[in-house]
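Subject: Sanity check before I submit

Could someone independently write out the structure tokens for this chain? I want to compare against mine line by line before I put it in a report. The sequence has 144 residues.
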Amino acid sequence: MSKRTMLGALYVFASLFLANAPAFAAPTPSPPGAEEYIIWPADGTVIHGGKLWVRMGLRNMGVCPKGVNIPNTGHHHLLIDTDLPPLDQEIPSDRNHLHFGAGETDARIELPPGKHTLQLLLGDHNHVPHNPPVYSKKITIIVK
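---
Independent answer below. Compare away.
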């Protein structure tokens, strides 16, 4: 096989491999001073009945639905009774990681009686935390 034929074959192989390789996007940047916070409930609030509204706040960034890639925007994720997930991966979607991909800034949730933690984490258009990540302090509430 000639050198030219080998290089041609290698080029075809590399092109096919790269065409099917997953694309790794750079992390979505967040601006300086960005802050996510829980407006309500306050830390230590006692909830009677288990149903409550969570009001989500964001400073120095905008709220945008999932899939919309606009600089300095994202959408809320409410973490219930869990720690922050890996901050370089897509935020899980389960009963402990609620996604608000339509751009919601408040949500009605229901929790069983007991002590619960709540924390917000902002995700980009692909549900991945920004760099640096934007998240609220973790609060504790009690449901009676």
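---
OP: Matches mine. For the report I'm noting this point. Confidence is low (pLDDT under 50) at residues 5-23.
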